[in-house]
Amino acid sequence: MTLDSKKRTQILRAIKKLVLAHHINVAGIDYGTWTQHVDERTAELLTSDVASFEEGVRRLLSELKTSHTVFYHSLPTESLPQHTINASLRDVSRDGHHTWMFLDVFEDGPAHRAGIKPGDFLDAVDGTLCVPPTTPHFAIGHTHTLRVSKPGTGSAKEIAIEVPKRKGTKQRPPIVEPKSLIHSKIGQDIGLLKVAHFPGAAGMRFAKALDEAVRDIKQQKCQRLIVDLRGNIGGSLGFAHLASYMCPGQIAIGHSLTPKRLREGYDPETLPCVPMPASKGELLTTLGRYAFRDKSVMLLTQGLGEQPFHKRIVVLVNEWTNSAAEMVANFAVENRLATVVGEKTHGNVLGAMNFNVGGGYWLRLPVSGWFTSKGRSLEGNGVDPDVLVEISPDALAAGHDNQLMAAVDVANGL
Fold first, then answer.
1. When you count CB atoms within 10 A of the terminal residue's CB, does the N or C end of the chain come out lower?
2. What is the DSSP letter of 269?
3. Which residues contact 149 (CB under 8 A, 6 or more apart)?
4. Where is 407: in which H helix or E strand?
5. What span, in angstroms and rounded, lies between the C-alpha atoms of 218 and 136?
6. Is-contact 85 111, C-beta < 8 A?
7. What does pTM read for this prediction?
8. Pairing state of beta strands 361-372 and 350-358?
9. Each residue's pLDDT tens digit, 176-214
């Protein structure tokens, strides 16, 4: 791929303009200093090779100190494992050396279909050794060859994984979305919801699937509920429907802020209170109401009524629990609606949009902030579990999920 200096100049100008117009500055960086850095590095970026240009732009964007800030091509070649093969990785010690271990492997994703399981080790991708802390990346629409070792056997095998082609939209970058929701009954009376993603711009499809899952769990006489958000890649407004099942009435989940409202200051108690729309009609009414107004709002639960598992809910999280899933976990902790088990979450909690900047490139930019109902920012902070349980690589290697087992023990004690 070629990228002449004219296109590069257009891309850099577009990025500067978009950042100054839309970026939510939760880190309080000085835009004057940032734009000066862009100008100082422009000459080098105009003459470098394409890979160095892309990396240079990403370094400049990292100075904004916000999550959800990504420069990518419409057919990206360097995407995270979660967004391509539907699996997360953890840096673990193996025979005295650092290595990547598969942590979350989402059901029916490319890695799962290829036979990869949590606890397996990733040794190489396309012949290149994978050594932490360098994260292996994957290309959309490409077939990769992975060398995977089974723990305890010392044997490794080559596995071909095809990453499907995906097109991005203004709301979503080109990623392979994992299966969003799986439910089952475990033990005598525990319902399990495994939520890997909150799909759809408004979350209506997810809400319908969640209603069906909860209905089935209740029909099976489940009196306790485990919500597994480990590895969840985030998503859209569907998280509010999940939060709504944790309490009977309408209470505050948290509030979103526009860049303007953040700059000018605000009183959370004066923000409009808006429950998650329960239908497309309510959604259209809400969108119309805020079409020409500041979109900073306090988001409320829907008031779904009493549930048999209330006060007996456990939420599972880990370091790859992201964005909207962190909003759910914090809501549960802040309102004492569930016991959170696992490990501290990532702290990537901002609302983002994707902008076409030309030359086949896009800029994903955070355009709204998210604060808890108590006014705390989760960005860069994450959610601490009530019960800290670190994952055991040895247990995973043996086919046992010690975090889930701990969640079951907690649920049975509620």
1. N
2. G
3. 120, 121, 123, 155, 156
4. helix 402-412
5. 41
6. yes
7. 0.94
8. antiparallel
9. 999 999 999 998 999 999 999 999 878 899 999 999 999
